[in-house]
Amino acid sequence: MTSSWTDGPPSTHRPASRAAGHRTTGTGRRRATARTVRETEDLQIDGTTVRIVRSSRRTRTVSAAWRDGIVQVSVPMGLDPEAERDWARKMLTKVASRQPNGPAADTELLARARALATTWLDGEVDPLEVVWSTRQQRRWGSCTPSTGRIRISSEVAAMPGWVLDGVLVHELVHLRHGDHSAAFHAMANRYPRQQEAMAFLNGVSHATGRGMSGADEVGPEADQEKEA
């Protein structure tokens, strides 16, 4: 997916820095050429992490795609920071509802869950499988501790990234604690936005009248959950 300016780059576009390099032509003469310079930065856009990739080769277009479980927005090098955020917000809106499905997407979701376990849970749990599910009609997520398998409702894909992280942390903690005891909540709340994420989900459930539950199904029976 690509979006381009039709009236040329905005006035806030600054010249990109270029590093000189050389290549040898077919005649044996050496000709100077510019080396592509890239910069990467993760920004928070309305509570969702967006990866900005700035490229000196890109001059007139902005594109976005899912990479490693987050939206990556490629922009021209030197674009004004405010313009970057505006484009990131536009592109996030376009692709947020297009979270990919299938094995590749599940692999990215597993990597994201493991990163959260390392960052916030001191690596005390390690899921074996984390997948998107279209069959989670009554819960945002479910977990089977005996197999290390976690399922996340595909509806969470369109929510802010910090909400997805809250659901993942919630299920990750169930690998250690099968109930919602004080020990469970103490571990889950190591993620700083955990309570905020759960409040967000409760608000969605209330607003939509779906009756989605924040309390998940834990144990072998979780794998047997059918569509409502």
Question: How does this model look, in words?
Answer:
This protein has 228 residues and is of the alpha+beta class. The protein has five helices and ten strands. It has helices at 81-95, 103-120, 161-174, 182-188, 194-208, and strands spanning 2-4, 19-24, 30-35, 38-45, 48-55, 61-67, 70-76, 129-133, 141-144, 149-153. Strands 1-6-7-5-4 form a five-stranded mixed β-sheet, covered by helices on one side. It has a three-stranded mixed β-sheet with strand order 8-10-9. α2 packs across α3 (161-174) and α3 packs across α5 (194-208). The longest helix is centred in the middle third of the chain and has 18 residues, at 103-120. The two termini are 35 Å apart. Mean pLDDT is 77; it is low at 1-25 and 219-228.
What attributes characterize this protein structure?
26% strand, 5 helices, three-stranded mixed β-sheet, alpha+beta, 228 residues, elongated, five-stranded mixed β-sheet, disordered C terminus
Q: Using the alpha-carbon principal axes, give the shape.
A: elongated
Write the H/E string, N to C.
EEEEEEEHHEEEHHH
Mean pLDDT: 77
Cα-atom radius of gyration: 22 Å
- Which sheet architecture does the biggest sheet show? 5 strands, mixed
- The total strand number stands at 10
The helical percent reads: 25-40%
Structural class: alpha+beta
Neighbour order of strands in the largest sheet: 1-6-7-5-4
Gap between N and C termini: 35 Å
How would you name the oligomeric state of the polypeptide chains in this document?
single chain
Strand fraction equals 25-35%
Poorly predicted regions are 1-25, 219-228
Number of discrete helical segments: 5
